[in-house]
Specification:
α5 links the parallel β2 and β3. This protein has 10 helices and 8 strands. The chain has a single domain, classed as NAD(P)-binding Rossmann-like Domain (Rossmann fold). The longest helix has 20 residues. It is α/β, with parallel strands linked by helices. α4 runs parallel beside α5 and α4 packs parallel to α10. An 8-stranded mixed β-sheet has the order 3-2-1-4-5-6-7-8, sandwiched between helices.
């Protein structure tokens, strides 16, 4: 680390649990962020400002005026621009040392296979069930920890799906791909602006902890927030032996 980095990241380095070694881990890490909207905005900004060395941002959409109520990575001047590019510009304005790769595409299974090649952690900030399942399947296959968040209306949730130990569940254990879940969107249901900031910031925190090797993650725990009353509910989750993605008969062999 050079002198500028020691100064920039000094508040992390001062933390006993973090120190120089923890910061070096961040500088050497590669994070994949799926979605550059309400959740992806605080995720991208905090990963970038914290010094995660490489960040790949995947989003097929463009910045719209309705996004600006909550998607803080974008500005009025960037209306019509790809969200991935806009988020990359904001990160680089905060920390020009970060290598940011914007990808203006949908995170479909085929594209994810190549994007996950050398990634250390994935943050799912998408807004639909199919993408979440595709991201989860890719992470299970490559044994990459997944930090997943969701927010709609006044309700949010967050968990870490880390199947590397063979103990914790994957996303499909809790939300089976074959289950019938009603799709909702911000365009029809609305969303409380600070809610995505709360959940997205927590996603960034979980990812930074995983990369730096500090504390314990939310693996095996699902946190749900009712922002109307600011009440958190925690549910302990377990791996499903019959899971079609990570179950004993379906788990990928150890690399």
């Amino acid at each position: 680390m050079n002198d500028d980095q020691l100064l920039r990241y000094s508040r992390h380095i001062l933390l006993n649990e973090f120190g120089i070694e923890g910061q070096r881990c961040l500088l050497a890490a590669h994070a994949l962020v799926v979605g550059a909207g309400g959740l992806g905005s605080p995720v991208a900004l905090y990963l970038g400002s914290a010094g995660v060395g490489r960040i790949t941002i995947v989003d097929h959409d463009s910045v719209d005026l309705t996004n600006l109520q909550r998607q803080i990575a974008h500005t009025l001047a960037r209306l019509g621009q790809p969200k991935a590019n806009s988020a990359a510009q904001t990160i680089l304005a905060l920390n020009p040392e970060v290598r940011v790769t914007p990808v203006q595409e949908r995170a479909d299974p085929q594209r994810l296979d190549s994007l996950l090649h050398d990634v250390d952690v994935v943050l799912d900030c998408s807004d639909n069930f199919a993408t979440r399942q595709a991201v989860n399947a890719g992470c299970v296959a490559r044994r990459i920890p997944l930090v997943s968040g969701a927010a709609i209306g006044f309700d949010g949730q967050i968990s870490v799906y880390d199947t590397r130990s063979g103990v914790h569940p994957c996303y499909a254990c809790i939300f089976p791909p074959e289950a019938a879940f009603e799709e909702t969107s911000c365009a029809t249901m609305g969303v409380f602006a600070p809610l995505v900031g709360i959940i997205g910031t927590m996603q960034a925190a979980e990812a930074l902890k995983l990369l730096a090797g500090i504390g314990s993650s939310l693996a095996g725990r699902l946190l749900m927030l009712d922002a109307r009353n600011m009440e958190w509910t925690e549910i302990r989750t377990q791996r499903s032996p019959s899971c079609t993605v990570c179950g004993t008969r379906n788990a990928a062999p150890m690399a």
